[in-house]
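Hi team, as promised in this morning's meeting, here are the two structures we talked about. I've kept the exact order from the run log so nobody has to guess. The first one is mostly here for context; it's the second one we should focus on when we meet again. Sequence first, then the predicted structure tokens.
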Amino acid sequence: MGHLFRKSYHPPGTAPGTLPEQGAGKGAAQIHLVRYSGRKVVEHEDCDLAQCLDTEGDGTLWCHLQGQPSPEQLARLGEMFSLHPLAVEDVGNHGQRPKADIFDEGVFVILNQPRWDESNLALDQVSVFLGQSFVITVHAGPGDPFAPIRRRIRNTNRNFSGLGAPYLAYAVIDMVVDQAFPILEELGSQITDLEDRVMETPERSTYEQIHLLRRDLLVLRRQFWPVRDMLGKLMRDGEDRFSEEVIPYLRDVHDHTIQIMDILESYREMSASMVDVFMSSVNHRLNEVMKVLTIIATIFIPLTFLVGVYGMNFAHPESPWSMPELHSYYGYPVIWIVMLAIAGTMLYLFRRRDWF
């Protein structure tokens, strides 16, 4: 579970804005450039940072870095676009809490995109810089999630060309937030399946699945709770960065975040109730087993008494207190009939009282 809560730190006393050292086996991030204005769209894949400023044309520049950038890339990026050093430092350090910082240079946003890594929930940090006429995004996870946005730009969506960089920043934030809905749909299916299993077969593996489900819900709640406050800050304090036309779109993302939080709270309550149902089912099964064992023991109590009495074998030919049944010709089958009659009568009475 530690990979969900990982957080990288500098040694105590390190100067603010210090970039992290490059980890072993990590290479530079791939760069995808898009510049669009009106109906003209220019793209460059797997290029160098120098092309960000060399790209000809007006309009909006989108520089996307896929993968974890090297310290050299981060330093160069900060110099080229005059980014605040604290924001550049946060890009290099994973495990950041979702937030929005408003600097003189522009707006800096950090989000965490949820995804499934096989059957485990994983989080990929997404960093967004919004400038006057450019947007820089950094996605630290595997695979590029922003291909649908580039496809919309190629289709000359008028919002992208008319509303500029703020609308592009909104589109990136909206897409990262909406990644939670497929995750929640899958978690909803897991909850439905676990509810059936809890009622039918409350086994240890079922309880472990409930625990994993509650952990995933906690992780998602921890990530999306600050996103709601972050969007409220952008709408409230970022009016000089986001135009009046873009603010309603941010409000729509804010509504999506509220929907996500409502679903998460409902799922958390359902998962908590499943734990109670699981414990009740386990106790019920235990009570059923104990009831059956108690009935069996109760039936054998009088039978044990009879065979104990006749197992004493007190037989004396001249004593009036000896056991006459010991010399009876039909004594053995008679005692079996008596014991079976006692057991049958007790079973009938238990069944009639609905004890089993």
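And here is the second protein, the one for discussion:
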Amino acid sequence: MNIYEIHKSNPDIFTQLSLRNQLFCYYECPQKAKIIQLYSKHNQLTFTLSGKRIFRHGNKKWTLSQEQGFLLKRGAFHQEIPDDFSDWKVLVLYLKDDYLKQVFEEFRPHFSSVNLPELDMEMIQEFTIDEKIKNSYKSLLPYFSKPHLLPDSIFEGKFKELLFNILIHPDNKQILAYINQIVDNYSIPIWEIMEANYFYDLKISEFADIANRSISTFRREFEKHYQTTPGKWLTAKRLEKATLLLQTSNKTISAITFDCGFKNVSHMSRIFKEKYQLSPTDFREQKKQGIDII
């Protein structure tokens, strides 16, 4: 599910404001399912006001609570309700590249590009919140109930103050390095997008969205790099991951199907039988017995 479009198209559930075509949302999460798959084609800053949620990407997880802020880069992830269930009230700020560049350039003299860290390839990046940052994001909240209380220019000033306080904090250089990369018009390589997200059940158009490319450009760059089509590559990568999990984990077939991005168990079983002439269950049993499978 495209979380940005879900938020944007449901203002009755996700209270929202728009500032220069940037979407800001403040809401109590209505999630009912234990875990859901989401993706976003825009970077977002997320601040937890109360409760918590778990975000998972690949084999890593992050617990979102009031102690930390989070930057979610373009990509897919799983959002999970923790076992000690509690409501989750959250402020989400979607930031498009052009606007980030504009704000960064305005404050560039205040940012040092010296000794910035190597970019962390993780899609989810936590950052430090101090009292100034906390006060900055909390100052935005009253305007969700009274959106015309202040002119846009004043509200924008409050948002810029928040972003400035995040980027100027000495513990948040990883965030500064990432935004500095965006400002430099860095185009994320196709391989980086695919290796980080192939195990999610996404359409080719959704991978293109995350990569910030048109479908035709995405396909052209993909085939140039991988020398095959996206569909064939995705099937092979997902099958490779499923094969490994069947041999090295005790996960159920259903869980492996979910973890590898197959649409459903019957879909994975069909792919498996085409490759090995065995169902996933039979494949696992023969491997346990030490039977070689050609």
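Starting points for discussion:
The two ends are 38 Å apart (CA to CA).
The beta strands are 15-19, 22-28, 35-40, 43-50, 53-57, 60-64, 68-72, 75-80, 89-95, 124-128.
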